[in-house]
Amino acid sequence: MIATHVIPDPVFDALAAGEGGPEAVRLLRQARRSRNLLLLRRILDGPCGPAAAPAADLLARVERADPAAARGVIDASSFGTWAARAAGDCPAHRHGGCGARDLAALAAVAAVRAGTGAEIAVPVHEGTLYLPGLGTATRLGPAGEALVVVTDRREAHPGADGARSPGHGCRVEIRLPGEVRPLPRDPGREGHDWQPVAFLEARHRGLALRLPLETADPRLPSLDTASARPAAWQELLRSAWRLLVDSHPGRAEELAAGLGAIVPLPAPARGVTSATSRHAFGTVLASWPADPDRLALTLLHEFQHSKLSALADLVTLHEPDGRARLYAPWRPDPRPPAGLLQGIYAHLGDLSFWQQRSAGRTAPERTDAVWRLALTRAQAERGVTEAASRLRLTRLGARFLDRAAQTVRAVRLDPGPARVAARVEAGTEAVWRLRWAVPDGTAVKQLAEQWRAGLPAGPLPPGDIRPAAGPVAGPGAEFGRWAARQRGAHRAPPARQTAEAVAAGPDRLERWAALAAAAAEERLPGAAVLRRRTELVRDLHHELAATAGTHPPDPLVLAAWLAGGPAAATGAGPATGEPRDTGWSAG
User: Fold this and answer.
1) Residue 77 in contact with residue 280, Cβ under 8 Å?
2) How far from 168 is each of 147, 152, 172, CA to CA, in Å?
């Protein structure tokens, strides 16, 4: 099943622009299947090979009898995540706890779906046996493994033609010391200490989805932690699917070709959380989204991640740079190069969603969609500029980013929401710089000496971005309230007013955000420095304020001086620290 895969130029360009179509998605799925098989080969050739060999042999036997059943397991999210983990270093393989043994559960599922006779030992995790894509058997006691026995469908039902639903009609038993536990004849039905994986189905205008609500993987949350049961997910998916097919038919065709599973996550304290594993093509992890619009948006956003992860298996978009920590407007933490590209690409899906939403519906919903479209475009455009200036792109990477940028810039906005979104984005970046960027202390002192001497600042010293350690929260409630107020403000407060507020409270993040936003909106000298080197302006302000008596320096003047603007041309500031007339009006 391993093949050579080539992305034709038109397909690459269509994918880079954000879509690609169902044929492109099928190509990516096939490529991911080959990658999974190559990882399996690597595992079998490595120290964990003996632990995986019986399951690999069974999978090969199933593939000969029923290729579709084998492909279904190899394509599934659990296989990709298992293979990526087991192909890495595994210090436990010498002690019998090797993760490669978990392939047995996947091979057993393939045998059940094919109706192929098999006996295989499957690990039991704390009394639970997981058969991903099939179901979970509980209360199995302390045994470390159980024997899963599948009776060939033809033996279970002589004369059967094999056309029945996957797994239906097989006899499947879980054998433990002193106990034989049969599964239901139809594994899709609940049984004694057996919880099947629910399948969600949706069909509209001839386009269909059939997805497992995957809960039978030991590395995933259980259904018990989810905030909604399968029946609720089923109804929500049907509504979301109608919305997608009617409003986004091209992307719905992509989802029909590539979406593989939904994994229900526990509900966060507020909002909705979602994610995608780069090893699990087409699998969307999501907490209960409560309404069809949010589920539709989540599917579009997360599937973009799957597409780019699979494309990155085939082409190199950027050179490795383990030290790069980059600004992504949609995240509170610094991102690696691959994470920045992933975010840009996922936002292309969001843009298509909000663009369609902003064109109709009732007035309140349209107003909200117009705002979200404006903010999404501002974030995506800033992400593109960050990637273009900071990543070491390959030739194909530059072409990919150029196509993505064309999609972003093709979105037309009303001037009012666009101005507000730009204001929020400027403030967001300023606050991010204050949280993560660290200017060189010696360089700050040198700049202070140059300021006092009335000399030009010269080239700005480089800074560093601190790495994030553990989960990262947002910048805080005060900044959140500032950002929320912008939606109702026709324009930013005067920059002169915000500069005075900063001088009075230079440790308040939201005041620097307001200053960066106001300076950008008024196009003042130094606006770019206030936004993209905020930490340098702040630290220089602190350094000068500590020795400037009762007259702290004006942050607007400092920013203009650092930018080499008008303040530098006339002398940055007297050594006494007295405020100078900048020539800017309060309006």
Assistant:
1) yes
2) 20, 11, 10
Residues 6+ positions from 581 with CB-CB distance below 8 Å: none
CB 432 within 8 A of CB 510: no
Instruction: Read off the tokens for 412.
Output: 């037309």
CA distance 58 to 75: 17
Tell me the pLDDT tens digit for each residue of 556-565. Answer: 999 999 999 5
Q: How would you classify the pairing of strands 145-151 and 118-123?
A: antiparallel
Both tokens of 276, joined, read 């995608």
Contact 236, 283 (CB under 8 A): no
pLDDT at 547: 77
3-state secondary structure of 344: helix
pLDDT score for 469:
87
In the 3-class helix/strand/coil scheme, how is 403-460 assigned residue by residue?
Answer: HHHHHHHCCCCCHHHHHHHHHHHHHHHHHHHHHHEEECHHHHHHHHHHHHCCCCCCCC
SS3 575: coil
**Looking at this protein, which amino acid is placed at residue 418?**
A
- Identity (one letter) of the amino acid at 174? I
The pLDDT score that the predictor gives to residue 580 is 31
Among 361-375, 385-399, 537-551, name the one with the lowest average pLDDT. 537-551
Give Cα separations from 213 to 203, 268, 283, 482 (angstroms).
17, 19, 10, 39
Polymer length in residues for the chain: 587
Span 396-401, average pLDDT: 98
- Cα separation, 472 vs 435, in Å, equals 11
pLDDT average, residue stretch 352-381: 92
Instruction: Pick the closest to residue 52 from 60, 68, 62, 40 (CA basis).
Output: 40
Q: How buried is residue 506: exposed, middle or buried, by Cβ count under 10 Å (0-12/13-18/19+)?
A: middle
The CA distance from 83 to 212, in Å, is 20
Q: What is the pTM of this model?
A: 0.91
The b/e string for 281-290 (b: 16+ C-beta within 10 A; e otherwise) is bbbbbbbbbe
Tokens 């840009």 belong to: 344
Distance in Å from the first CA to the final CA of the chain: 68
Query: What is the β-pairing status of strands 283-287 and 261-265?
Result: parallel
- CB neighbours of residue 519 within 10 Å: 28
> Is there a contact between 369 and 350 (Cβ–Cβ < 8 Å)?
no
Whole-number pLDDT of residue 271: 85
Instruction: Report whether 494 contacts 587 (CB < 8 A).
Output: yes
Confidence of residue 391 (pLDDT cuts 50, 70, 90): very high
pLDDT of residue 225: 65
DSSP per-residue letters across 100-129:
GGGHHHHHHHHHHHHT--EEEEEE-BTTBE
Beta bridge partners of 318: 393
| Token couple for 82 | 């298992």
Amino acid, single-letter form, for residue 581: D
Residue 507 burial by CB count (10 A; 0-12/13-18/19+): exposed, middle or buried?
Answer: exposed
Alpha helices in 157-291 (DSSP H): 230-247, 249-258
Q: How far apart are CA 393 and CA 383, in angstroms?
A: 14
Closest CA to 398 of 337, 317, 342, 335: 317
Mean pLDDT for the chain overall = 90
